[in-house]
Amino acid sequence: MSIEQWWPKLAPATRDWLIENNGGAVPAEMVAEITQAGGVVDSEAWWSGEYRAGDFYFSDEGVDWIEAVGNGEVPEPR
After folding, report:
1. Are 75 and 65 in contact (CB under 8 A)?
2. Which residues of 26-45 are buried (b: 16+ CB within 10 A; e: fewer)?
3. 75 found inside a domain
4. Containing domain of residue 42, as a range?
5. How many CB atoms lie within 10 A of CB 50?
6. Which of 14, 31, 35, 54 yields a CA-CA distance of 20 to 30 A from 66?
7. What is d(CA 51, CA 42) in angstroms, rounded to the nearest whole number?
């Protein structure tokens, strides 16, 4: 499922945290929330990055998408 589909299903506090901490490691409880919302973080999805030292990170494209949303923009659908 693409980020455009699961992003609105996240709690507002989670979306706010992801925007404010964009590019950083995503806490395990937020990875679980993303998964429950339909995002598969270990997939080949364009937004899904990698695990480093046990922490999940969004891809560069995912980081750019979240930054655009945080700036009040509407990113192009993928």
Report:
1. yes
2. beeebbebbeebebebeeeb
3. no
4. 3-70
5. 11
6. 54
7. 8
50 within domain boundaries: yes
Euclidean distance between CA atoms 58 and 24, whole angstroms: 8
pTM of the model: 0.92
78: in domain: no
Task: Enter the tokens of residue 3.
Answer: 């980020």
Fill in the amino acid letter for 61: E
Count of the separate structural domains present in the chain: 1
Distance of CA 46 to the CA centre of its chain: 11
The token pair that represents 30 in the structure block: 């937020």
Please write the tens of the pLDDT for every residue from 37-71. Answer: 999 888 789 999 999 998 999 999 999 999 999 99
